[in-house]
Amino acid sequence: MADQSTNSVAFVRTEEVPASPPPANAAGPVKWMRENLFSTPVNTVLTIVAAYVIFKIITGAFPWFANGIWNSQSLAECREILQGTTGGCFSVLSERWNQLLFGFKYPPELYWRPTLAFVIFLLAAAPVLFFKLPRKLLIVTALFPFIAYWLIWGGSILTPLLALAGVAGGYVVYSRFVTNNFAMGFFGGIIAAFLIWTIGGSILPDGTITDGPMQSVPSRDLGGFMLNLMLGVTCVSLSLPIGIALALGRQSSMPFIKYVCVIFIEFIRGVPLITLLFVASVMLAYFFPPEATVDLFLRVVIMITLFSSAYIAEVIRGGLAALPKGQYEAADSLGLDYAQAMRLIILPQALKISIPGIVNVAVGLFKDTTLVSVISMFDLVGMIRGPILASTEWNGVYWELWLAASVLFFIVCYGISQYSQWLERQLATGHR
Amino acid sequence: MTIMTDPPRESFRLGMLLSDTRYRSLTLQAIAFILLALSIGYLANNLVRNLTALGLNIDFSFLGTPAGYDINQRLIEYTSQSSNLRAAFVGILNTLLVAFLACVTATIFGVLAGVLRLSNNWLVRKLMSIYVEIFRNIPVLIWIIIIFTIMTAVLPGPRAFRGDNATSSMLFDAFAFTNRGVYIPAPIWGPGSMVVVATFIASIVAMFAYRRYATNLLYATGRLLPMFWPSVAIFFLPAILMFFIMGSPIGLEYPELKGFNFAGGIKVGGPLIAIWFALSIYTGAFIAENVRAGIQAVSKGQTEAAGALGLRSGRIMSLVVLPQALRVIIPPLISNYLNITKNSSLAILVGYADVTATLGGITLNQTGRAIECVVLLMLFYLVISLTISFVINIYNNAIKLKER
Amino acid sequence: MKKSVFLGALTVAGLAAGAAAAGTLDDVKARGKLNCGVTTGLVGFAAPDANGEWNGFDVSVCRAVAAAVLGDSSAVEFVPTTGKTRFTALASGEIDMLARNTTWTFSRDVDLKFTFVGVNYYDGQGFMAPKDLGVSSAKDLDGATVCIQTGTTTELNLADFFRSNNISYEPVPIETNAEAQQQYLAGACDVFTTDASGLAATRATFEDPSAHVLLPEIVSKEPLGPLVRHGDNEWGDIVRWTLNALITAEELGVTSANIKEASMEAGNNPEINRLLGTEGTLGEMLGLDAQWAKRAIEAGGNYGEIFEKNIGENTPIGLARGLNAQWTDGGLIYSPPFR
Questions:
Q1: Do C210 and C231 lie in a common domain?
Q2: Percent of chain B clearing pLDDT 70 (strictly above)
Q3: Domain assignment present for A51
Q4: Element spanning C144, H or E
Q5: Residue A307 lies in a domain
Q6: pLDDT at residue B166 in the model
Q7: Confidence bin at B315 (pLDDT 50/70/90)
Q8: Last residue of a domain, one of C204, C220, C236
Q9: Is C148 within a domain?
Q10: Considering only CB atoms, which chain C residues are within 8 Å of B69?
Q11: Residue A31 lies in a domain
Q12: Residues C104 and C253 in one domain
């Protein structure tokens, strides 16, 4: 009984009990499921319904993908191979992929040209989208329109060079005069550019090349997803400056300019794009000089650009309105004139706020480029509705084609909207 | 000591038109006006030259001539002998019909999906964000075509209902879902049916009166009357009682397979359903985002404060969160309604006779009056959207935060 | 083609000089290409194949005109047009001629100011129905749902037919032929109506063509032919006589096989000689050279050959000559004499 003195109490713990794991239903996946899937009866019902929907979709779609045929020559052949089992006839994609991407008239040996233009486009867009990239890349951006034009349409390199020379000349004049007077620089630059184009255009030989790697491709031969991308990129970039001008005009204190801008913006926003495309296809030709023929692509670009510039103007107006009034007053108190205040103080900030909105407009516009299929242009949707579904071989293949079109659009639009959200988070830092 | 004097007034010089702020804006406006007038004149001149060269003219008299074609979906009397103007009106009404229906259902889809996206159920949340992303990122044109293809390819044709070994049958012998449309029973108004209808309308009024009384009572005395069940009772009971008292004056006419199609009942055409559903589910995805943003815009402190006051969660939603969220939700909601109206012009893809299909489609094709038709078409859409913007402005002014 | 799209944009601004507004013939020659409006795709009449080459009955007319004017049957730019855009495209000068199953009607000729240069296919609107529908006449179609391809005279004829027979129907207007076909095959409409030739062409693409019948009624007259703008009669003459040359060649037995030989030197038949330019100055009168008709015929053969190759009985479309036989065989195809 000697050690009883040391252990006077029957039982004393000297060390901490190791924490026992939480009960099985309060940890790990079970806990997660209890909290996230089955927390209340309503939730349980919802979960079961949702799971059932997912199950149905997967079991319905799986055999269709798994049994898909990728290498037949026609739908009839597909049906023969499938022997009545469920399965997609994806061979329409493997056989007509080039038509879906480039349209049916673009010369197949020249597919590298638009592809290269697309790669350069990614390079050119990068410094605009990601501010951290070296600013030198902006040179690619500046040259991109001319290179892309040359690559896609082909022909003599003199034409894009002339265009570039005009822009460069205009810029030189602009930067020469802008320090004195913005208006003088701006309009001087425009006049200089037009002078160079007009003089150059009259001495330049006809730039059409009929064969070889840089042979000319008329814009009527463009088509497929390429056409959607081209329309989207061209119209959004052209409509940015117009949109800025309209937004400033709408804020202007000059009543005439203000009301012209308001009427224009409200008119364009009030009518559906499809009626504007009808204008492009059935009306606009009457408004050009009788001796000029302007091809459909250009007419459509004009109308879509007007359309998107009105929407972009509204986004930028929102940006301008969101700037604190102090910014305007500060610019005024520094003695800056209107052009300087806008260029140096207001617009950089307003545009920065507007970027997510502009990106949203761009996504919407890119989706809307599919409407050109209604006026007999063969974009991705037009290719499917027209030549492919009308052909003897593939008449009746719907799901595979529409699935492919949806996937292409989804990738691009989802990518852009994710970028927009990322950008919004990046920009959100300075303003709270 | 300084004496402030006005500087001597300069007499007007030409250069002051640009350098003097008093005149500059006038000068600029004058220049803008001249430029605008010149370009409009240029375009008009081109138009006139083109048209005279072709021997054409602008002439709206085609509106009065017989249209010559039939329209499958019409809300007003119309035959192929009616005028083109009437055909345009049929189209306008159809546009408004599909726009209205799609606005209602898109709101339902959008609110459901938006609320469910905030649900604490992981699976539902994810499913809803997949729905929103998929529909927002694929062009509406493709959705319309896909849904129309589903309609025609998946639903059975009327032929499938025929014969002894029919492959399809009608739901409750009253509803037929075919790829030409959905046939539902139509009410037959017998004698005395007006009394039932009048009772029904009276009970709706009574229900609102009761709800208002209950609310007033609550605010005045704090006494809480039951709301839901009495409302339901007032809504249904009198009309049902009256229906039996009058000896069941309202009957139902069931659709029946006759000849090529179902006859009798009400037909909701396939094209209408396709464009209606496509627009609602597409726009619903956008509305869902608005609803989510609206609810999230109400700061959490509001919910917590309401909870601290002892409100139950249902009442927190209806009395505190929603009224504030609506302020954020409604303006973009209305512009989504505007988008629905404009997108309904894509109905031509599915053969629904909206105004783009009648005035801007068949009439244009048949008369060749492209300029006139397109101008009228744009005018119509413009009137609609200006009206809607007008409503937005009124609403925005009404709900402006009244700061005191 | 102008210098480029870019310079085209400047043309719009009125800054670069546009081409002089001369006659269409000079424009075409200066451009080196014929702009020809066709459908967006109707197998047999005008449709691009898998390589993007346009083929078909209407396309052959364009090629013949290009061969006559430019000496190269491939110097054609095919401009796909819809029912809506075709007339503006022609009126505004975007295309030089329209060869797109266009029905010659009074109002198009007089009111819309187009010149139809002739008829290359006598058509009529018909109905197609599935065999198991058990319909033998269009007059049995009371209450039927009818799919129509919009943008043609079809809607009007249909309304007239049903009204004059006092029976009801439900129209389903569809934009493109492919979509109308899909509707019809899915049973969303009982019958499909368009020009009888189009019906035959459509039926040829079905999985089981024999399960569908063309109803005997032809409810309209549809003389289809190429058309040009009013006012440029020289150009109209060229298109008109190119078409007539193809027709006359068949009548006189000039085919793509024997044309080489026949055009070497003047033969016994003076009309063949005049046609092929070995005698007389017909080409000169048109503003072309003596060999114009020879090239037009060489491009795709004579009228009969073009018919057989694209839509004749040995093609999937399988149309009989019927009304479109030469007048000597009891048909309506008849060319004024080359004299």
A1: no
A2: 91
A3: yes
A4: strand C144-149
A5: no
A6: 66
A7: confident
A8: C220
A9: yes
A10: 155-156, 158-159, 171
A11: yes
A12: yes
Domain span at residue A45 reads 19-55
In a domain, C339, yes or no: no
Shortest distance, CA C7 to any CA of chain B (angstroms) = 19
**C194 and C305 co-located in one domain:** no
Q: Centre a 10 Å sphere on the Cβ of residue C326 and count the other Cβ atoms it contains.
A: 18
Domain count, chain A: 1
Q: Which residues of C touch A296 (CB under 8 A)?
A: 94
Residue C214 is inside which H or E element, if any? strand C212-214
Residue A4: pLDDT band with limits 50, 70, 90: low
Q: Is C192 helix (H, G, I), strand (E, B) or coil?
A: strand
Distance, in Å, from the CA atom of B128 to the CA atom of B105, rounded to the nearest integer, reads 17
User: Which residue of chain C comes nearest to A200, CA vs CA?
Assistant: C16
Separation of alpha carbons C121 and C60, rounded Å: 13
String of b and e for A129-138 (b: at least 16 CB within 10 Å)? eeeeeeeeee
Arithmetic mean of pLDDT over chain C: 84
Alpha-carbon distance of A352 to A379, in angstroms, equals 33
On whether ipTM exceeds 0.90, the answer is no
Which of these three, C220, C255, C277, is where a domain ends?
C220
Token pair in block for residue C256: 């793509």
Could you tell me if residue A106 is inside a domain? no
Query: Which whole number is the average pLDDT over A182-209?
Result: 79
Tally of domains in chain C: 2
Specify the pLDDT at position A229: 92
What confidence tier does B270 reach under pLDDT thresholds 50, 70, 90? confident
CATH number of the domain bearing residue C156: 3.40.190.10
Range of C213's domain? 125-220
Q: What is the DSSP string of A34-52?
A: HHHTSSSHHHHHHHHHHHH
Instruction: Assign A431 a pLDDT band (cuts: 50, 70, 90).
Output: very low
List of chain B residues whose C-beta atoms are within 8 Å of the C-beta of residue A417: 136-137
Q: Which positions in chain B have a beta carbon within 8 angstroms of at least one beta carbon in chain C?
A: 42, 50, 53-56, 68-72, 79-81, 149, 152-153, 156-160, 179-180, 258-261, 263, 270-271, 348-349, 351, 353, 357, 361-362, 364-368, 370
Residues pairing with B182 in the sheet: B177, B268
| Predicted pLDDT at A108 | 84
Do C178 and C304 belong to one domain?
Answer: no
Distance from the A113 Cα atom to the nearest Cα atom in chain C, whole angstroms: 17
Per residue in A138-179, pLDDT tens? 888 888 888 888 888 888 888 888 888 888 888 888 888 877
Residue B174 pLDDT greater than 80, yes or no: no
